[in-house]
Design brief:
This protein is mainly alpha-helical. The protein is built from four helices and no strands.
Length: 59
Amino acid sequence: MAFCFKKAERLLKESNLSVSEIALQLKFTNRTHFYNLFRKKYGMTPQEWRRHQAESSAK
């Protein structure tokens, strides 16, 4: 699962793919399940994480 989330981080940072597309690439058949696992691990949704990373790198 750690590898899966590292890949999700990379795709969220480096691509313009939607979260749904990223979830599919990571073989999640249920987007809601991906969101729930992501939120549990990072304390925010994938979109929030992406926005936070963009803001952090812009500073």
